[in-house]
Amino acid sequence: MTNMTDKAGLRVDAKLAEFLEREVLKPLGRDVDAFWQGFADLLGTFAPRNKALLQKREDLQAKIDAWHSERKGQHNDGAAYRSFLEEIGYLVPEPGEFQIGTENVDPEIAKMAGPQLVVPILNARFLLNAANARWGSLYDALYGTDALDAPAAKPGGYDEKRGAAVMAEGRKLLDEIAPLASGSWTDLETLDDLTLADPAQLVGHTGRGPLLRNNGLHFELVVDPGSQVGKSDRLGIADIVFEAALTTIADCEDSVAAVDAEDKLLAYSNWLGVIRGDLSETFQKGDESLTRELAPDKDFADTDGNPQSLPGRSLLFIRNVGHLMTNPAITLADGGQIPEGIMDAVFTSAISTLDVEDHARYGNSRCGSIYIVKPKMHGPEECAFTNDLFDAVEDLLGLPRHTIKVGVMDEERRTSANLAACIHAVKDRIVFINTGFLDRTGDEIHTSMQAGPMIRKADMKSSDWLDAYEKRNVGIGLRHGLSGRAQIGKGMWPAPDLMGKMMIEKIGHLRAGANTAWVPSPTAATLHALHYHREDVFEAQQGLGEVPGLEPLLTIPLARGANWSEEEVREELDNNAQGLLGYVVRWIDQGVGCSKVPDINDVGLMEDRATLRISSQHMANWLHHGVCSKDQVMDSLRRMAKKVDEQNADDPSYEKLSGNENAPAFRAACDLIFEGTRQPSGYTEPLLHSWRLKKKA
């Protein structure tokens, strides 16, 4: 049982309270008693509103379920369906013409276009790696991945043939993004003769070589003729270092397993470390002990010889949890747990105030802003609630209005269908919208659970609603002034080992108008940065067409007339079951919320909790409509348990699933499917948290 202490009528985990008071409130010079009383008052106002919004979700879902059930077997009438959604308040009127009014936004968000990382906040090493991924080695990224079309490096040290292919690719890239006034970089004899076609691309020199810029992004030539790579290069270039992950989201939500005060304290401690600038992590790599710290800024002299610097780290967002979950770290006078999203808003903002008020070693925002991504909001009422909550947090902490900026994840159907109204609800603090296929599909299935069986999961990617969803997100964002003031983002490339394929496909996000997109690793960020050198996103945004209407977005992806064979059903169940089990076993048993999980074809994919939502909801839907039976689902789970065991055979801390069906991990997987139709909005958190707490106990 955790040790609790009384704070203004709240019962607060003692270690969490001590952390906040000693490490945050004291350096800020805030009155501790006034803070706790203000926090208690804030909860008195916002906890009941939070509860009412969740109840409205349930009420709307019940009406939608009833509507579909009454029309079972009938052809779906799109016009009647839309009228019904308007009648019940699921669809709200458009807000009319407006432009967002967000001010004091850092250039990484407003004026620049580049990759974005999302990193689990509980893992300090990963968090540091992501924060430091502002700059990345092109040569390392090409040498170690399949992004380079050349024979793989031979084991046993540096492969000079592979290295030569990397250098040749680097020269081709320089010709493309920084062409010379005449000739090719391949033929350049000395950097003393460097004359660019556009002299303005040369912005200065670091201590290592020339610093150049293209499409607003910098890259540095590292000249070191004595190094292993540089000695074989005519110009002595040992590397090309690219500005890569402009922004990083430190995630308290889908990529972590944080279920109690102990977990939340670790999350907040790591956030404090990167904000204050003193986070470090020591780890073993082979026989060597290494310590990771935050990178300093990059100093250089401009072309007039004046000293300048560029940020050495990604600009950091923090993703709070959504409105649904509560957490036992703090309880109310009646013993009820407080909404975790409210706790995150207050605690992460208080920590970030150290940056705003200049108590940080490096600084995060140069514009005095705090950046919070808010996920899983359903419609404009919930966005307005977040706006009011952030107002109250600013008042509690004594911050100017709209210091706290918000990123809105467009991953729920009611948000997608009312996106303009959602943006309007936070129009003076919005800095980010983003689409997410997995969560959005999970909500698509759950919302229309009673309408009929859904198409196969892979077919969702070519469905009418998904195409409309992606295009509407960009189009509505542009219509209301996000270009040049905020990020319009696209979702994750999930396969960190398939960089060659990423380099072919992910440039499509830029051409669709996204000025940022998620990648799974610092290496992927370096490679994805090349796309932003090849495409001017802000120029592309000017040429985008009309916003699709609501009709395709509201087209339910039902499998009308499908008659799948038993083998096809088994194949679909196996795919879902394998992905679900492969992720759940790490979440429940090891508390790992994000990792590279092999799929059914043994391709490693970066998975987070959204994986479970789509897989469990799809299986629940087919089970509910008789496409498959419970016995068929259990057969897939048992067979896939053996496969997942084989895939994790080299993990000494792994606990087997097969033959262990009473273990928390296997039972959690079963519950996610067999209780899937009854879960709030199809979310996995209530069941996962319950089973993880049992496992921890």
UniProtKB/TrEMBL annotation:
Catalytic activity: glyoxylate + acetyl-CoA + H2O = (S)-malate + CoA + H(+)
Family: Belongs to the malate synthase family. GlcB subfamily.
Active site: 319 (proton acceptor), 608 (proton donor)
Keywords on record: Acyltransferase, Cytoplasm, Glyoxylate bypass, Magnesium, Metal-binding, Oxidation, Transferase, Tricarboxylic acid cycle
Domain Malate synthase TIM barrel: 316-544
NCBIfam families registered for this protein in UniProt: malate_syn_G, PRK02999.1
Function (record text): Involved in the glycolate utilization. Catalyzes the condensation and subsequent hydrolysis of acetyl-coenzyme A (acetyl-CoA) and glyoxylate to form malate and CoA.
InterPro entries reported in the protein's UniProt record: Malate_synth_C_sf, Malate_synth_sf, Malate_synthase_TIM, Malate_synthG, MS_C, MS_N, MS_N_TIM-barrel_dom, MSG_insertion
Taxonomy, superkingdom: Bacteria
Top enzyme class: transferase
Gene3D superfamilies registered for this protein in UniProt: Malate synthase, domain 3, Malate synthase, domain III
Binding site for glyoxylate: 319, 411, 436-439
Residues with the Cysteine sulfenic acid (-SOH) modification: 594
Binding site for acetyl-CoA: 118, 125-126, 255, 292, 520
Binding-site residues, Mg(2+): 411, 439
Localization: Cytoplasm
Domain Malate synthase C-terminal: from-to ranges: 568-675
Protein name: Malate synthase G
Cofactor dependence: Mg(2+)
Pathway in which the depicted protein is active: Carbohydrate metabolism; glyoxylate cycle; (S)-malate from isocitrate: step 2/2
One Gene Ontology term of the molecular function aspect: malate synthase activity
Annotated ranges, domain Malate synthase N-terminal: 17-71
